[in-house]
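Running this now, will post back.
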Amino acid sequence: MKIKGCLVLLGLAFSSQAFSHGHHSHGVPMTKQEESAANGIFATADVKDRQLSDWDGVWQSVYPYAKDGSLDVVFQKKAEADKEKSFEDIKNYYLTGYASDITDIGIEDGVMEFTVNGKASSCKYDYKGYKILNYVSGKRGVRYLFECSDKKSEAPKFVQFSDHIIAPRKSTHYHIFTGNVSQEALFTELENWPTFFPYQMTKENVVHDLLHH
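Update: finished.
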């Protein structure tokens, strides 16, 4: 089933107004505390539980855009700012990070549907809390954990979201970690972080977002 099937299945409707003027809405402006958390600096006490509804919607992988050269302008800008890593270094870093065989994801009413090679699988997911990760850089991150409750489902059993948000708030893009071994096994994955943006964003919207946010 292609993503159009996913759209129909989930019955999700979007307002075109949020996507006018060539970019998408980021919703309510972030507070200074939220901006700090987005940069990996926050107090443990500020981390709160979140519901799967924070990620409701239909989402597209940005990996195809990285592979076809559409994001080269983004990588070039990062390389110019870095001064130590070349364009090739930056691009390879993101190609590894964005890599995923999941092309689209739909989320609604606690159900997630994954599309891989045109085939869709879905499951209802239960919230299993969160995990705070402390990185070598000194920054921190939070992963929100969910598990598939249907043993017959072909969808990933374990799912983790990381979107630089540490309390209830609608996500505008996210990194997702999926697998069938355990949540603990996914915690060790730090180099591959498949990244998804709203399905209704055009390629140009995605490039604009990555350049300016």
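Residues 1-25 have pLDDT under 50 and may be disordered. More later if anyone needs it.
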